[in-house]
Amino acid sequence: MLELNHIKKIYHDGDIEVKALNDVSLTIARGEMVAIMGPSGSGKSTFMNVLGCLDQPTSGSYRLNGQEVAERTQRELATIRNRELGFVFQSFNLLPKLTALQNVELPLVYAGVPAQRRAEMAQQALDRVDLAHRVRHRPKELSGGQQQRVAIARALVNNPRLILADEPTGNLDSHSSVEVMALFQELHRSGITVVLVTHEPDIAEYTQRVIRFRDGQVVADEVIRPKRAEK
Ligand code: ADP
Ligand code: ADP
Q1: Which residues form the ABC transporter domain (predicted)?
Q2: Ligand 2 proximity of 96 Cβ (cutoff 6 Å)
Q3: Residue 7 Cα, ligand 2 centroid: separation in angstroms?
Q4: What ipTM does the predicted assembly reach?
C-alpha cells in the first residue's frame, strides 16, 4: 500500500544541508499497524509528512496504492488527503467553537457532501469511537481522551484506508492513552492501516511493527506481538 524507495528529504538552512530523510526505503502493507520511533530530530515528522502527501521528498519514489505521488497534481493530492487518509495529531486540532458533531463533519464539508448526509456520517463516526452521547458538546466540555476520540472520528468520517497519527497519546494520561490505543487496535482489526509516531515504548507495544529512525535513516524495523489494549 505504501512503498518508499530511496527517499531523501533535504532542507537548506543557510549553507548547511540537513538530510531530514537520508535514503529511506520501506514498504507498509495494507492492514498493518506500525509505530514510528526515534529521537527528536531523527526525521519522524518529515517521514509522516511525506506519507501524508503534505510534503514532497527531494528525491526517491513514493507510491501510495500503486500510484507515484510525485506525478499527482496539487488538486489530486488534496483529494487523496481528504478521501483516503485520516490525520490525527498530538494536540487534537479541534475547532473550539464547533460541537463534536460539527468538528467531525468538517472533512465532509470540504468534500461537498450535503448537510443531512454529513450529519448522519458524522454521527456514525462518533458512534464508532463511543461518543454518541457527546455529539453536542464542545471540545472544552470534553476530557482530553474524549477530544482525541472526536479527532479520530473526524479522521474516520471519510472512510480512509490509512490513518496517520503523530504522537496521538502525547497529551493524554496513561488511562486515556490506552483507550485511544484500544480504539486504534479496533480500527486496525476492521482493516484500516495505522501508522503512528510515538516516543513511548509502552505505546509502541500495542502495535505490530516498530520502525526506528536515527539521523534520517531507518536503523531498526521489527515485527512484534502486539499487547492488547483493554478499554
Ligand atoms: P523528528 O520528527 O524526529 O523530531 P523532524 O522530521 O522534525 O524530526 O526533523 C528532522 C531534521 O530535519 C531535523 O534536523 C530538523 O531540524 C530538520 N528540519 C525539519 N523541518 C525542517 C525545515 N522546515 N527546515 C529546515 N530543517 C528542518
Ligand atoms: P447518494 O445520494 O448518491 O447515495 P450520498 O448521499 O452518499 O450519495 O452522497 C452525496 C454526495 O456526497 C455525493 O456527491 C458523494 O460523492 C459524496 N460522498 C458520499 N460519501 C462520501 C465520502 N465518504 N467522502 C466524500 N464524499 C462523499
Answers
A1: 2-231
A2: no
A3: 35
A4: 0.71
